[in-house]
## 1
Amino acid sequence: MSGGALKIGLTGGIGSGKSAVAARFASHGIAVVDADALSRELTAPGGAAIPALRAAFGEALIAADGGLDRARMRALVFSDAAARARLEAILHPLIEAASARRCAAAASPYVLLDIPLLVETGRWRARCDRVCVVDCPRESQIARVIRRDGLSAAEVETILAAQASREARLAAADDIIDNSGTLAALHARVDILHQCYLSMTNAMPGR
C-alpha cells in the first residue's frame, strides 16, 4: 500500500471506455490524475521534457512551435522498440514525479490515477493501492476507435498489438468494470465501485 490517500490505478486498452469511466468518477468529486495529460504538458512548447527529447531524438522530432512533434514520434515508437524505450526512459520519471505532486495536492477522499500503460510498464503498480481495469471485447474496442478516430481496422490492430493483451490486463486487476453494454450500465457499475472505494477509504487507519 502507498502512503497518503487511497490511490486507484485506472487502466484499459484503447477504445475500452476508460475516459468515460474517469469522467464518471470525476463527477463524484474524485480527483483524476491523467498520465496522458501530464505527458502532453511535459512535451508541449516549453515543457520540462523538451530539452531531453531534443538531445535524444534531434530537431526532427521537435515541431515548429518548440513542442514535441507527436505524430512523428508516434510513428517512430510504433516501428522502433529502442526508440520507444528511450522515450519512456525520459518521460516516465517526469510523469511519475508530476503525478505524485498532484496526488499530494488532491482533496478528494481517494485519487484516481488514469494510466493507459499501467500494465505495460510495470512501474506504476507499486504506486497504486488497487488496479481497476475497464474491459470490453476486442471487437468493441476496434469498432469504437474506428468510429471515434477515423482509423482503419488495420491501424487499430497495430495499436492494440503494441498494448498489453486483454488477458494480461485482467490478470493485473483488483477490480474490473465491464463496458460491453450501455453508457447507463457503465455509470451504474462505476457508482457501485465508487461506494466501495469510499468504504475502503473510511476503513483506513487514522480515518
## 2
Amino acid sequence: MDSIHIQGGVALQGKIRIQGSKNAALPVLAATLLTKETSYICNCPRIADVHRMVSLLKSLGCRVRWMESGVCVNAQNVCRGDMPVEAITGMRSSLCLLGALLGRCGEVVMEYPGGCVIGERPIDLHISALKQMGVDFCEEEGKLRAVTKGLHGADISLDFPSVGATENIILAAVAAEGDTRICGAAMEPEVTTLCEYLECCGAQIDGIGTKTIRIRGGRKLYGANYRVPSDRIVAGTYLFGCIGAGGSVLLESAPWEQMEAVLDIAKKMGGKCTRLREGIYVQAPVRPSPVAHLQTTPYPGFPTDLQSVALAVLTGACGESCVEETIFENRFRIVEPLRKMGADIRLADSKRAYVKGRQRLQGASVEAKELRGGAALVMAGLMAEGRTVVTGCSYINRGYENICRDLRELGARITSV
C-alpha cells in the first residue's frame, strides 16, 4: 500500500472490532526472551512493527510461529544479544529488547534505535537506570554495547515517567538478583500489561499500575498464554474520526476503562460516547464543538498518540481551540498538510497550536511523516470535501492492521493503491 485515496463527506455508520494493542504487544514479545519455554501471545496485531519484532526475535534464535489468533514464541535457543542492523532499522521499539536481552544473555550489541520523527526521544533514562543495576555501556563502531557481570536490584527514580524506560527496568529487574523499586514509573496500561504477562510467567511484582513498582528479581520464569488487550489508540482514532466525519459507530472491544481522558475530550467536542459491555458506542454531533485547552500528558492524561487526530477534528469545530503538546516536540508536523487542506492553524511555538474551525476541509494530496500523523490525515480526508490522497503509508502500517478495510466497514469511500 503506497497511497490511500479517500472521497470525503460520508458519515460513518456501523461497527468495527478494535485490534490488539501495538504498544502492549511489543514489550510482551520482548519479555518472551526471559523464559526458555513457549508462550502464546493471543490477540497480537498483525502490523508492520509486530512483524519486525517477530523477525528480530527469529534473528536472535527464537522459534516463532503465527497462529490464527496470535503468535507462539519459544526462546530456548537464544544465547546471544547481537541484534542485526537490518532487523532494527527504523524500529524504536527494538529498544525494549535491551533489558530483556541483558537479563537473558548478559550482553547486548545494537544500533541506536530509530522510529518516527516526532521528537528526540533520548535513551539517557534507559542507560542511567540500567547502569544502577550493574550494566556497563560503551560505543563501538557506532553501535551501543551493554554488558553486565550480573544484574542486581536497585532503587531507581525516574525524572520523567518514560514508558520505555519503565518497561526496560522491569524486564531487567525480573532477571536480577534482589529487589528493584521504580519511583516515578509510567502508569500507562501498556506497562500494566507487561507486568501482568510477567506475573503469568511467575514473576512477583507489586504496585502494578501505580507510580511505585517493586519487582522481586531472580525468580524462575515459565511460558504462559496471555491475551493482549485492545488498542486504545486505534479505538481513539476511530472514535475521533466518527466525531469529525459524523455518524454513529460501535467500537467493539474498545478498552473504555483505559480511555477516560479521551472520552472526556470527545464529550467536550460534542460527541456522545456510551460505554457498553461490547465496547464504546459513539454518536457524533452535527459539528464538533471547540476545546478551549487540550493538553497531552502522561497517563492517565490525554495521550500524545491521539493529539494529531484530535487536532485534525478540531479543524472542523465551530470555534477556536488550543492544543498543547507536552511530550514530543515534533508532533505538529501535521500542521502543514492540514493547512494544505484548508485548515486555519497558528503555531504559537513548538508546544501550542491555535485552531480556528472551518465548515469543511478541502481534499488534497498530502504525505504522512509519522504513524499517528498519518492516521490523522486519513481522518481529515474523511471530513474533507472532495478527494484526498495520503502517501507515506508505510508509517500508518506500523500501527494499524488495515485502516482502509476498517473504515470501509463503516461506510467510508476509501481505497489503498
## 3
Amino acid sequence: MKENIICLTDIEVKTFFPNNQFGKVKELLGSHICINPEELSGEEQWLDVLKKYNPEIIVAAWKTPALPDLLSELAPNFRYLCYLPGSVRKIIPRSIIENGAHVTNWSGSVSRTVAECAVLLALCCMRRVRYWTEEMHFKGGWKTAETTTQSLFERRVGIHGFGLIAQETAKLLRPFTSNISAFSPSVPDEIFLKHGVSRCDSLEKLFSENDVIVELAALTEHNQKIITEELLRSLPDGAAFVNVGRGAVVDEEALARVASEKDLQVALDVYGVEPLPKDSPFRGMSNVMLLPHLAGPTTDRRQDAGAHALENLRRYLQSEPLVDQLTVGMYDRAS
C-alpha cells in the first residue's frame, strides 16, 4: 500500500493550517492517511505504520516520532519530509538526507516573529521592565529622583550570527538605530551590505563596542559556550544581553555570575537545559527577564509556516524547486 502520511496532533493542524488550509493540504496530497501521533502506542507501532503505508511524503511536526535510519527498507517509496517546525535533527537522520531525501522546515517563514521578540526583549532591557514589574506589583514601588532610564534609540546594537532571523532583527531595529553590526564569519559581505549592517571582525569587538547584544548564532560544535565570562564582562556598564538563539552557545554559569555582579540587563528565551530548572540562578534576579522558549513563531503566526509548507508541497508535486530545501550542510549547522 502507498499512502502519504500526515502525522499531526489536532492542535498542530489547527494552528499551522487554520481557515481550511488543512483541506488544501489533503487535496494536494491526494491519497493519504492522517495519524495523530498522540494516539500511537510507541515506536514499534510507528514503524509498522511506515512499513504498511510506504509513504512518498510525510507531513510532520513536533509530536511526530523520529524516522529510523533504516527508513529506506521500511518505506522505499519515501522521498520528502515536509516538517512544519524548525530543527529537524530529532526527526530525521543525516544519512537519509545524504541519500537524496528532500526535507523542508519553516525556515525563514518565522524569522520576523523571532526578530519581533528579540526587539521586544531589547526594549524591555532598556526600560528595566523586569525590575519594575516586580517593584510595582509586589513591593509598592515607584520611581525616585535617582531613577535612571535608557532608550533603544541611537544605541549601538551587535548581533552574533547573521542568518535569516538576524537579518529580520536588523530590519526591525532600523526605526531605533542605524548603528548595527554583526559577527558571522561565514556570511558573505554582500549580505551585510544588502542589510546595511557593519561586519564585526571579532566577538571581542562585538561585545566591547556595543550597548546591546542579540545572540542568534547557530549551535555548532565550535559554538558551544563560545560566549565566555570574559566577553560578558567586556560589555559596557548598562548594556543588555538578549538571547533568542540557543542557550548552549552561552556559558550560563558565567552569565549568572556576571549578571549578579555587573550593571547588566539580561533577557533570555532559550537555555542550555529546557525547561529551565526551578533552582536556576537566573530565577529571581531583578535584572534578568525570562521567557519559556516562545520567541517564535507565536501561536497565531504558525500559519505562516503552514503557508510555507503548503507552497513547498505544491512545488514538490509539480516537480518545481523547493523553497529553502535543507542540505546536509544546513543540517550540520542547525541546532
